[in-house]
């Protein structure tokens, strides 16, 4: 996008949530400057995000500072997606996009994040691990059912809702501690082919490749 000043994008090298924002920025061709935050609890950064988490952005074009990945993605789309690349024109579709975004933020991310935490926890708590693995498998099944006969969540149109799921989907596919407990135990590739194909389809988009390489 010509004439725009780069958005300052606060991220880190690990963790899925900042990648939602990076993918949205890449999809929309918005110039940005990435700053890796080593200590998000540092005073300078909590002045930007009192919650002490990444991602966050500062947009010099509008004067807005914003945190929370879902809110940032919505902001980028509403502010800069003038051609509707990542959204749809009809009212029902717009609400369905919000529905899926909220499902990702409340129903996918927290379960995946807690599962990772308990698998890395020095104290072995099998019941907690199993609880969150079961919930991840449930979310995968829900998504697989939604995607029956479709390329993306809203049929053939790739949208911002789809991109918000891919960073956590990548964790499930690649994190070693999920291989036996989830991927093999729940036969993800065999039982949920729609989910697997959707994840691969999005992961192969140039914007996703750039977001993970930058």
From TrEMBL:
Alphabetical list of InterPro entries matching this protein: Glutathione-S-Trfase_C-like, Glutathione-S-Trfase_C_sf, Glutathione_S-Trfase, Glutathione_S-Trfase_N, GST_C, Thioredoxin-like_sf
Ranges for domain GST C-terminal: 90-214
CDD domains for this protein: GST_N_Ure2p_like
Transmembrane segments: none
Family recorded in the similarity comment: Belongs to the GST superfamily.
Protein name as annotated: Putative glutathione s-protein
Domain GST N-terminal: from-to ranges: 5-84
Matches recorded under SUPFAM superfamilies: GST C-terminal domain-like, Thioredoxin-like
Highest taxon of the lineage: Eukaryota
């Amino acid at each position: 996008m010509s004439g725009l000043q780069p958005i300052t994008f606060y991220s880190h090298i690990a963790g899925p949530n900042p990648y939602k924002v990076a993918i949205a920025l890449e999809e929309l061709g918005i110039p940005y400057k990435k700053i890796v935050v080593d200590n998000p609890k540092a005073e300078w950064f909590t002045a930007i995000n009192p919650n002490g988490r990444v991602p966050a952005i500062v947009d010099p074009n509008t004067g807005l500072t914003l945190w929370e990945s879902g809110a940032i993605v919505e902001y980028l789309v509403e502010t800069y997606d003038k051609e509707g690349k990542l959204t749809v024109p009809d009212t029902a579709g717009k609400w369905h996009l919000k529905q899926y975004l909220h499902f990702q933020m409340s129903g996918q991310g927290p379960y995946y994040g807690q599962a990772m935490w308990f698998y890395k926890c020095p104290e072995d708590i099998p019941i907690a691990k199993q609880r969150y693995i079961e919930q991840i498998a449930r979310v995968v099944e829900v998504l697989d059912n939604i995607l029956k006969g479709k390329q993306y969540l809203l049929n053939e149109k790739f949208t911002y809702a789809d991109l918000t799921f891919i960073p956590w989907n990548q964790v499930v596919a690649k994190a070693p501690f999920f291989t036996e407990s989830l991927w093999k135990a729940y036969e993800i590739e065999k039982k949920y082919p729609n989910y697997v194909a959707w994840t691969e389809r999005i992961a192969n988009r140039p914007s996703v490749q750039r977001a993970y390489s930058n």
